[in-house]
Amino acid sequence: MINSIALYVHVPCATFRTSRSREYGKTYPVPPPSTIYGMLLSFVGETDSRRHCGVKLAVAMLSQPQKSRILRKMRRFKEIPLGNLRNTTVEHQEILTNIKFIVWVDSSLEKSNPTLAKRIIQAVENSSSVQRFGCLYLGESNDLVNSIRLAKEYQLNQPKRWLVKDNKGYITLPYWVDHVGSRGTRWQRYSLEELAAETPPDSCWTTIQT
Fold it and tell me: Per the domain annotation, does 115 fall within a domain?
């Protein structure tokens, strides 16, 4: 039984909006584990976010995404009629470009059958068997994934910056998001470290759980 796989992911541009962003759309510097988990669920056509709780993810960045800022128009319906100009506003938003990373998926502790790792393999081998709503994206709905595939040996051997769990780390990311309210959202502090490792050290694994 396949319990662990490694996937290479490339996204040309995306924004991972921080939870405290308001008019200024600040982005996390790397994709949060919760966002990557959501992408994987979409990849296999799963709509129940709890279906694969217990899966473990490890992330290593292959690129150092460049940050830029754009100005975009937003619509917030506060006034009637809906076409009222007061419903339209503009805001600055940070975006990241050239996002390349490897995500390891470990399903050894999952209770679901088939596991997420097995379903990913099935989706890679027979993409026509997957029923998905819309396109595959990472982050917001216009942040389309350019490539997702099983990682090749040369990619696994490339220099990487590992997302390491660190109670004193400078990056705080969600690994589970409560979409009804914020009370159920779960967080973990991380740091990015260059480690001479081809497979994830224990400190790099994040368990997806409520």
Answer: yes
**Tally of domains in the chain:** 1
* Domain span holding position 160: 4-193
CA quadruple 99, 104, 109, 112: dihedral sign: positive
Q: How far apart are the C-alpha atoms of 171 and 189, rounded to whole Å?
A: 6
Residue 210, domain member (yes or no): no
pTM of the entire predicted model: 0.90
Nearest to 131 by CA among 140, 142, 123, 143: 123
* pLDDT score of 201 more than 70: yes
Residues 76-131: pLDDT tens digits? Answer: 666 666 666 666 777 778 999 999 999 999 999 999 999 999 999 999 999 888 98
Rounded Cα distance between 209 and 201, Å, is 20
CA atoms within 13 A on the CB side of 163: 29
Contact 55, 209 (CB under 8 A): no
**Residue 181 placed within a domain:** yes
Q: Among residues 137, 129, 128, which one has the least CA distance to residue 41? A: 137
User: What token pair was written down for 202?
Assistant: 């224990």
Instruction: Render pLDDT for 42-56 as a digit per residue (tens, 0 to 9).
Output: 999 999 999 999 999
Query: Rounded to an integer, what is the distance from CA 193 to the centroid of its chain?
Result: 19
Q: What's the full length of the chain, in residues?
A: 210
Let me know if residue 20 belongs to a domain: yes
**What CATH code is carried by the domain that includes residue 41?**
3.30.70.2660
CB 66 within 8 A of CB 11: no
